[in-house]
């Protein structure tokens, strides 16, 4: 090998090393640029994926509600939307069941707040023997499984004539919503300084006026959050409505189950009914979301 050829080989080797170093440097620079982007958008992408994962069953149900019955088992997401499922619900008894759910949930929420809020205030402000035990036994009504109360309610309602009535179902929902109201509102009343009500007493207010004009307005976010939870729990109930209703007071969840018949499952009606059942809860929650967040986070930090 001549001296000239060795010189050429050495020059090519040096050039290849420089190109390799340049490639590594370019890759490192690219990675360095990519890391801040990941830091800035990684959390957003993760949250978006989690939200999509959580919402995927609801989105699947909604697209089924607008799907033609002939394409109900097709995997393709491309189809011509139709309202046949919703129209068939309007022609049947589902509308009545829907209004039954709305009426029962509203009645149960109102009754629970009317009874539970003053009870929570009394348990918070007044000291008497057995106060802690009373609050604990009220909580048991919520923690116990529904089957523990079903048979007593069933037999009592047969005797009292409350079976298959809206007021009877609202009373049943009152039993477990009352525990939610009392325990949640106790937390909110404890966050209100008692000195504010004492100042109202000095100014001439009675106990009831101090409660109505001072304590209750200061706990308005908690009141809204409690009302939302009571309404959602009543609206979503299926077990009590299935056992204690027959024809007149059937609620929407029970009516949807009736679409599962021996002749076949009416998937379009089931999907359309499920979509309609979700709608009031979503709207109600969105309207009071500000109070819901403030109410659920109130008392999380102590001064």
Gap between N and C termini: 87 Å
Low-confidence stretches: none
Number of helices: 13
Radius of gyration over alpha carbons? 31 Å
Would you count the extended β strands for me?
A: 2
Give the CA-based shape.
flat
Order of strands, widest sheet: 1-2
Helix-strand category: mainly alpha
Give the oligomeric state of the chains in this entry, treating copies of one chain as homo and distinct chains as hetero.
Answer: single chain
User: What is the N-to-C succession of helices and strands?
Assistant: HHHHHHHHHHHEEHH
Explain the overall architecture:
It is a single chain. Helix content is 78%, strand content 1%. Helix 1 packs across helix 12, helix 6 runs antiparallel to helix 9 and helix 7 packs across helix 8. It is mostly helical. A two-stranded antiparallel sheet has the order 1-2. It is flat and about 70 Å long. It is built from 13 helices and two strands; from the N terminus they run H-H-H-H-H-H-H-H-H-H-H-E-E-H-H.
């Amino acid at each position: 090998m001549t001296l000239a050829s060795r010189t050429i080989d050495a020059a090519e080797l040096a050039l290849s090393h420089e190109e390799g170093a340049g490639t590594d440097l370019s890759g490192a620079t690219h990675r360095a640029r990519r890391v801040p982007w990941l830091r800035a958008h990684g959390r957003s992408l993760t949250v978006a994926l989690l939200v999509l994962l959580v919402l995927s069953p609801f989105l699947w149900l909604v697209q089924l509600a607008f799907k033609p019955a002939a394409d109900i088992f097709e995997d393709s997401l491309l189809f011509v939307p139709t309202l046949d499922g919703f129209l068939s619900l309007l022609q049947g008894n589902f509308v009545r069941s829907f209004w039954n759910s709305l009426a029962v949930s509203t009645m149960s929420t109102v009754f629970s707040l009317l009874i539970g809020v003053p009870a929570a205030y009394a348990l918070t402000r007044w000291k008497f023997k057995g106060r802690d035990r009373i609050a604990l036994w009220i909580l048991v009504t919520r923690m116990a499984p529904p089957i523990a109360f079903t048979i007593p309610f069933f037999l009592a309602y047969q005797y009292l004539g409350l079976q298959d009535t809206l007021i009877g179902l609202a009373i049943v929902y009152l039993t477990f919503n009352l525990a939610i109201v009392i325990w949640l509102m106790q937390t909110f009343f404890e966050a209100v300084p008692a000195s504010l009500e004492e100042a109202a007493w000095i100014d001439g207010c009675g106990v009831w006026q101090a409660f109505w004009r001072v304590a209750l307005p200061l706990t308005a976010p908690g009141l809204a959050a409690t009302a939302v939870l009571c309404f959602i729990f009543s609206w979503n109930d299926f077990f009590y409505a299935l056992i204690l209703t027959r024809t007149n007071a059937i609620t929407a969840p029970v009516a949807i189950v009736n679409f599962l018949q021996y002749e076949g499952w009416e998937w379009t009606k089931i999907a359309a009914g499920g979509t309609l059942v979700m709608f009031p809860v979503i709207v109600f929650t969105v309207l009071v979301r500000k109070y819901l967040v403030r109410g659920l986070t109130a008392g999380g930090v102590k001064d």
